[in-house]
Structures are given as structure tokens and as C-alpha cells.
UniProtKB/TrEMBL annotation:
<keyword id="KW-0418">Kinase</keyword>
<feature type="transmembrane region" description="Helical">
    <location>
        <begin position="173"/>
        <end position="192"/>
    </location>
</feature>
<feature type="domain" description="PTS EIIA type-1">
    <location>
        <begin position="505"/>
        <end position="611"/>
    </location>
</feature>
<dbReference type="GO" id="GO:0016301">
    <property type="term" value="F:kinase activity"/>
</dbReference>
<dbReference type="GO" id="GO:0016020">
    <property type="term" value="C:membrane"/>
</dbReference>
<feature type="transmembrane region" description="Helical">
    <location>
        <begin position="321"/>
        <end position="339"/>
    </location>
</feature>
<dbReference type="GO" id="GO:0006814">
    <property type="term" value="P:sodium ion transport"/>
</dbReference>
<feature type="transmembrane region" description="Helical">
    <location>
        <begin position="55"/>
        <end position="73"/>
    </location>
</feature>
<dbReference type="InterPro" id="IPR036259">
    <property type="entry name" value="MFS_trans_sf"/>
</dbReference>
<dbReference type="GO" id="GO:0005737">
    <property type="term" value="C:cytoplasm"/>
</dbReference>
<keyword id="KW-0808">Transferase</keyword>
<dbReference type="InterPro" id="IPR001927">
    <property type="entry name" value="Na/Gal_symport"/>
</dbReference>
<feature type="transmembrane region" description="Helical">
    <location>
        <begin position="434"/>
        <end position="451"/>
    </location>
</feature>
<comment type="similarity">
    <text>In the N-terminal section; belongs to the sodium:galactoside symporter (TC 2.A.2) family.</text>
</comment>
<dbReference type="Pfam" id="PF13347">
    <property type="entry name" value="MFS_2"/>
</dbReference>
<keyword id="KW-0812">Transmembrane</keyword>
<keyword id="KW-0762">Sugar transport</keyword>
Length: 638
């Protein structure tokens, strides 16, 4: 009997997970962007400027230090989460408890620790350090658990992509939505308390309460609406990444290193400018009430760029999309510096500023560097490489927070200061680190990417082809597994697809016969099935190549089509996850033969064995029609 409620449960699970990041991103935005604004503008009103500047310096310095230490702390927190065993699973307890504790402490911070500064500023400083550190640790617990939960929600990689996309989408709403509501909310609640139309301490406290309650409600929804799956796949496929792993991956992968450096320059410029735009509207333009325009522009453009990117990338290489985005960003900086008095031009500048594909291009290039590193160093550091981009964001966020605090103090934008108090010198002091330095960083980012990053789509396709040929020729292995006994083992290999069986040497690559030991099938449909009992070792990001190992230790590759790596995964739908145990006949992959043929590629499916020197000679392949599940060969180890 089928479960009629299953589709609705899946939809509610996706909705619940997505809402989790809505509150999560709003909380992080309040902490990373607007807490500094609160600290520099109203927290120390009534305190002598000498003590206030010391405490602002202490707070901004502490935030920088904590963000840097997160690089070392987060793997430890992840290890604690991994070792959690409860009736609610390993992630939900930390998502909910981490959010509740960090939210309560955020409220205390936005309350100025309830007037402790007026009792004893030294005691205030000590308590602040303790509260902030504890709050940041529990926020990190929630953050690590939330994104770490994705593999526990589904074994299907396509469905995982849906969860991730939905979380990213709602996160953009939560993050950019703050920019729209922060001034109206803070002003309104300040007015209710003081009858003054300004952004005062009561308004900031109310803002923190609202965002904290939102975060708790959304975290509760995640714990109620999602279901962690406990299975062998999860237990066997978890990986832990250390700082040593990250450093090793950077040191031995020059294309990853250059991409990371270019992205670091972009991210630092972006986080600095995003952090000071509130000050820009309040103190330079004297229009804090129009600050919502920033959030609206960011939200609209972020909704457009993600779906637009894959469409444009079909016709425009990544390198030029990166260039387009960075040039738009540079033009925006020129508008911010020279034409900010014109509101129309300023809006255009904001649109151009957020219209950048730098993050998307960088993530995809870093992903491609996995195969580059594998070809160059013989190692495939997937988890390490994919953890570097968040690490860079943490670093640039740390530097940005410190610089924003410095800018506020150096430009006199603290305490009860207003736009009327700003002199030409104050504005010049503000513009240099807020716009001139980020403008220079954006230029450096583009120069580095254009001159040093050679890992284009075409180069990646060539790397994948070279890796495939090395595997086929037996020059590299899928695993480091060693035989556990000396007895010969045999594996029954069944046809993975319907079609016409042919010898592998009939398949041509660059005019030469495909090397190695195995067979090929010219398919009559687009379904790939498991050829034996075993497990999935890995899948290339383009999905056209699947690495498997049988229960008897036979290593094999299923290679779907020739030059199909250039499709970048289009037309391929996988029904498994790397590390998954499989049985002969399990459906592994659907592929679009029509799309392959429309792009003038060969759809021949090749299966070859990566350790031919360890195998007894195979029987010759006679060309004939075949169905998936038909026995092709009983492959015998020596």
C-alpha cells in the first residue's frame, strides 16, 4: 500500500528546512552587520568618549578574534555534533538549543547587558567577553548542525540540491530583509518609548527581540518538520575536515589557491562595503530612512542572478561572467564615490553592485579544482576543498567587522553624531576604507582571476578526460583497498544498460581506440543500472562517470558518453549517493540521450576495470543486442 501522505510530508520537510535558514540568516545579519551599528551609535551614549572608544575597540577586536578562531573551533564543534546520540537525532538538539541560547544572549547584548556599563565599565567588559564568546559558540553549534543536516534528510543528490537551494533562497530573504526593516523597526519602537523619531537604544532592543524570536520559531519548525534518516550510508560516508587538511589542499592545488585568492579579494571588498552602507546612508547622505533601498536592491538582484547564471553560462564562459560581475561592481564604486548625491544613480549603483557572479563562478571553479588536484597530486580532497569557501567568508567577515569599527571611530560616526556633524575630512576618512580600498580589491580580484585561474570549463573537461583515460589504462585506482586474502575472487558483471554490446576498442577518443579492459554498449534507452553488488566510490561533478567497487574488490568505471563532461551535469539524474551500498540491478542514473545527441556527442556507455593487471584475461566481446541485467562476464582476479 502506498502512503498518500508521503508527498505532503516531503513538501513540509523542505518548507521547514528552508524556513530554518530564514531565521538563521536573519540572526546572523543582526549579529554581523547591525550589532556593530548599535555598538557604535547608541550603546555608549552617556559614557565618556575616552571609555566609549576603548570599549568599541575592545568589542570590534573581540569580534575579529572570535571569527578567526572559528576556523579552528568549528571542526571541533562538528566533531561534538557527529558524536551526539539522542532520540531526536544528532542535529536537531543542537539546532534548537544553540538557537535558543544564542538568541537569549543576543538580546542581552543588544540591551547593553542591562545597564552594567553604568555600574562599572571594567566589569562590563569582562561580562561582555564571556557572553559574546558563549553566544558565538552556541550560534556556531546551530550553524554547523543546520547545514550538516542536509545529507541526513535524503540519500538522493538531486533532492539534497533542492534542500540546499531552498535554504539559500530563504537565507537571502532573511539576510536582505533586515536591510529593509531595520530602520523602520528601530525608529518605530524608539518612538513608542521616547517619542523621538530616531534609532535609539529601545528600538535596537526591540529589533533584537524580534529577530531572536524569529530565529527560535524557525529553528523549532526545523526540528518539528524534518526527519533525520538513520542508515548505513550516513554512518559510513561521514568525513571530518581538519585545518591540516585545508592547508594541505591549498598547498598542493595551485588553481584552487589562485581561485581562493581572487574570491578572498572579492569577498573582503563586498563584506566591507556591505558593513558600512548603513553609515553611508545615515552620516554621508543624511537619509537613514531610505536605507531600505539597499535591502530591496540586494533581494531583487539575488533572486535574479542565481537562476540567470546557468542560462547565461550556456553561451558565455565563466571567465567572462566573472569579468562582467566585477566590472559592474567597479562601476558601482565609482557611483558611490562621485555621484552619490543623485538618488537615481545611487539606486543604479546598488543594482550594479549586487549584480555579480563572482561567488557562483568561484564556487564552481573550486569544485572543478577537485579533479585538477586529483590529476596533479593523485588525491581527491572533496570535503576539504568544498569547506574553503565558507572559511574565506569567515575570515573576510572578521576583517570587515574590525574595519567597520575602525571606520566608525575614525570618521566620528559614533554616539549621538549625525550627518550635520560630518565634515569634509570625516567623509574623506570614511570613503577611503569604505570605497577606495574595496574598489582596489575588486580590481585585484579580477586581475588575479583573469591572469592566474586557468581552470576553464574546457580545461576541466580535458582534465576529466585525462583522468578517465588514466583510470582505463590502470594508471590509477579508485580506492586504496588492499586484498585481504590470497584466494582468487570473481565477480559476475551484468549489463548496466539496454542496447548493443560492442568491444571497447570500437569506441574512439581523439581518433584513438578507448584504452583499457572492459566493454561498451551503444544504448537504446537512458537508464544505468548497477552491474554487480558493491558500493559507489565516487561520481564526477559532471555526473557522466561513476566509480564502483564490487563486494569482491573489483574496481570499475561506468563512463556515460564521449565528451559528455562538457554538459556539466545537464541531462543526468542520479539515484544514489557516494558511498552507498548497491545491489545488481539497482537504478543508478538516468541520462538524456536526446540532449547528448543534440550537442553532437556520442552516447556510448563504456564500462572498464581500473586494475586490469590484477585480472585474468577476459573473454572476447561478441557484438550483440543485450538487456540490462544480462550476464556479460565473470571477471576473475589472479
Amino acid at each position: 500500500m502506498t502512503n498518500s501522505n508521503a508527498p505532503s510530508k516531503h513538501l513540509f520537510s523542505k518548507f521547514s528546512f528552508a524556513m530554518g535558514n530564514f531565521g538563521h540568516a536573519a540572526f546572523y545579519g543582526a549579529l554581523s552587520n547591525y550589532f556593530i551599528v548599535y555598538v557604535t551609535s547608541v550603546m555608549f551614549v552617556g559614557v565618556s568618549s575616552r571609555i566609549a572608544d576603548k570599549l568599541i575597540g575592545l568589542i570590534t577586536g573581540l569580534i575579529v578574534l572570535i571569527r578567526i578562531l572559528e576556523i579552528f573551533i568549528n571542526p571541533l564543534l562538528g566533531n561534538i555534533v557527529d558524536n551526539t546520540h539522542s532520540r531526536w537525532g544528532k542535529f536537531k538538539p543542537w539546532i534548537l538549543s544553540g538557537t535558543i541560547i544564542s538568541s537569549v544572549l543576543l538580546i542581552a547584548l543588544f540591551a547593553g547587558l542591562f545597564g552594567l556599563i553604568k555600574v562599572n565599565w571594567i566589569l562590563y567588559a569582562i561580562v561582555f567577553v564571556i557572553v559574546f564568546v558563549v553566544m558565538d559558540i552556541f550560534y556556531s553549534f546551530s550553524d554547523v548542525s543546520y547545514w550538516g543536516m542536509v545529507p541526513a534528510l535524503s540519500e538522493d543528490s538531486a533532492e539534497r540540491g533542492v534542500y540546499t537551494s531552498l535554504g539559500t533562497f530563504t537565507g537571502a530573504i532573511g539576510w536582505n530583509g533586515l536591510t529593509i526593516i531595520v530602520v523602520p523597526v528601530v525608529t518605530y519602537f524608539t518612538y513608542l518609548t521616547t517619542s523621538k523619531h530616531e534609532q535609539g537604544a529601545p528600538g535596537w532592543f526591540a529589533f533584537a527581540v524580534i529577530i531572536s524570536l524569529l530565529a527560535i520559531v524557525c529553528a523549532t519548525l526545523v526540528t518539528i518538520g524534518t526527519h533525520e534518516k538513520d542508515n548505513l550510508l550516513r554512518r559510513s560516508a561521514q568525513q571530518k575536515t581538519t585545518i591540516k587538511d585545508v592547508i594541505s589542499a591549498l598547498a598542493h592545488n595551485d588553481q584552487l589557491l589562485w581561485t581562493c585568492l581572487a574570491y578572498f579579494m572579492y569577498s573582503l571588498a563586498n563584506t566591507i562595503t556591505t558593513g558600512v552602507l548603513y553609515y553611508f546612508f545615515k552620516f554621508v547622505l543624511g537619509k537613514p530612512g531610505t536605507y531600505w533601498i539597499v535591502g530591496m536592491a540586494a533581494m531583487i538582484i539575488s533572486f535574479c542572478t542565481s537562476p540567470l547564471y546557468p542560462v547565461l553560462n550556456r553561451f558565455i564562459p565563466r571567465k567572462w561572467l566573472y569579468t562582467l560581475g566585477m566590472v559592474c561592481m567597479m562601476i558601482a564604486y565609482l557611483i558611490f564615490i562621485f555621484f552619490h548625491d543623485n538618488l537615481t544613480l545611487l539606486v543604479i549603483g546598488l543594482v550594479l553592485y549586487y549584480f555579480t557572479f563572482a561567488q557562483l563562478v568561484s564556487i564552481l571553479t573550486m569544485t572543478d579544482s577537485i579533479e585538477y588536484g586529483q590529476l596533479k597530486n593523485g588525491e581527491r580532497n572533496e570535503a576539504v576543498i568544498l569547506s574553503i569557501r565558507p572559511l574565506i567568508d569567515n575570515l573576510t567577515g572578521a576583517f570587515s567587522n574590525g574595519l567597520v569599527g575602525y571606520i566608525a571611530i575614525a570618521a566620528g560616526m559614533t554616539g549621538a553624531a549625525t550627518a550635520a556633524d560630518m565634515t569634509a575630512k570625516n567623509i574623506a576618512t570614511f570613503n577611503s576604507p569604505a570605497f577606495y580600498i574595496p574598489f582596489a580589491l575588486s580590481i585585484l580580484s579580477l586581475v588575479i582571476f583573469l591572469t592566474k585561474v586557468k581552470l576553464s570549463e574546457k580545461a576541466h573537461a580535458e582534465i576529466v578526460d585525462e583522468l578517465t583515460l588514466k583510470l582505463a589504462a590502470g594508471q590509477s585506482n579508485l580506492t586504496d583497498d588492499q586484498p585481504t586474502n590470497s584466494k582468487p575472487a570473481s565477480t559476475k558483471v551484468f549489463a548496466p544498460v539496454d542496447g548493443n554490446l560492442i568491444p571497447m576498442d570500437q569506441v574512439k577518443v581523439n581518433g584513438q581506440p578507448f584504452p583499457g579492459t572492459g566493454f561498451a554498449i551503444r544504448p537504446s534507452d537512458g537508464h544505468i543500472y548497477a552491474p554487480f553488488d558493491g558500493r559507489i566510490v565516487f561520481t564526477f561533478s559532471s555526473k557522466h562517470l561513476i566509480g564502483l567497487v564490487s563486494d569482491q574488490g573489483l574496481e570499475a568505471i561506468i563512463h556515460i558518453g564521449i565528451d559528455t563532461v562538457n554538459l556539466n551535469g545537464q541531462g543526468f539524474v542520479s539515484h544514489y549517493s557516494d558511498g552507498q551500498t548497491i545491489q545488481a540491478g539497482d537504478l543508478l542514473m538516468d541520462f538524456d540521450r536526446e540532449l547528448i545527441n543534440q550537442n553532437h556527442y556520442d552516447d556510448t556507455v563504456i564500462m572498464f576495470f581500473t586494475k586490469p593487471q590484477q585480472l585474468l584475461p577476459l573473454a572476447s566481446i561478441n557484438e550483440r543486442p543485450i538487456n540490462h541485467g544480462d550476464l556479460i562476464e565473470q571477471v576473475q582476479n589472479k
